[in-house]
Amino acid sequence: MGSYKCDSCTRCFNSWHACTQHMSVLDHWQWPYDCETCNARFATERSAEQHMEAKDYWSYPYDCETCNDSFRFEDDRDDHQEEEGHYKHLYCSDCDRYFQNPNNLAQHMRSRIHQGTSIKCPFCQASFVTASGVSHHLETSSCPKAKNLSSSAIHRAIRQRDPNGVITERLLEWHEGNTINSTWNPSSAYNGHGYECYICHREFSTPRALEQHIRSPVHQAPLYHCPNKTGKCGGKRFPTLAALFNHFESEYE
Q1: pTM over 0.90, yes/no
Q2: Which of 18, 34, 177, 221 has its CB surrounded by the most CB atoms within 10 Å?
Q3: In this structure, is the dihedral angle defined by the CA atoms of residues 151, 156, 157 and 161, taken in order, positive or negative?
Q4: Is 40 contained in some domain?
């Protein structure tokens, strides 16, 4: 048996010359390197690459999930989608907008653009997208027709209607809200650099900003909790009803 074997069939030859003649006549050469686009085949990888470079026959099999760009390599496609926010699950088709993370997209989908403003304040009839929006409106005494309402007044009313503490904290001792002495002047809290909170010592640039901070629930003990104490939040606690509603809206949408 000859020592020179055909690339394709079982025939063997005593000389390389005879073997090459056979393979040329019968087209039995092995061409292991294919063009990615056409049917051309090559004996070496370098020859195939030169052909595809000259003809621009490189294939781009990895498509972006949302735009028309294609890529030669999966990593390049993934980098593009990460940089541009082009992952399909981060795309709002109605608005043709992309978002950097699922939370941003979820907030967009909950906005008035998609949800409308179907929830109204029972006093002034102002429209809101969510229950948390209405609650914040009332708890901050922002309603022009319910100025007597505040987070303290609302909490007191809910406690009376929730004797078993389904959503309200069962506090041993409770004092209403962040009450501020009527004679207190936030300008007196200036320390030479800014207006300083006497609780957390945070500084503010104006007396009004300090007063808003003091009146906010930031230093208030939690008054409400999620009733789903066995769920993933473990009965998370909140200082305001609006914060509790926001939790419901984000966790159970």
Answers
A1: no
A2: 177
A3: positive
A4: no
E-assigned strand segments in 53-105: 62-63, 70-71, 91-92, 97-98
Query: Tens digit of pLDDT for each residue in 167-201?
Result: 998 875 555 545 555 567 888 889 999 999 888 88
Other beta carbons less than 10 A from residue 45's beta carbon: 10
d(CA 214, CA 202): 11
62-113 pLDDT, tens digit per residue, is 888 777 788 878 888 888 877 776 666 677 767 777 676 777 777 777 776 6
Query: How many Å separate Cα 210 from the centre of its chain?
Result: 32
Is the separation of the CB atoms in 237 and 243 below 8 Å?
A: no
In the chain, how many domains are there? 1
Distance in angstroms (rounded) separating the CA atoms of residues 215 and 209: 10
Domain span including residue 84: 62-109
Q: Are 172 and 196 in contact (CB under 8 A)?
A: no
> Residue 134: phi, psi to the nearest 5?
-65, -45
Residue 71 lies in a domain: yes
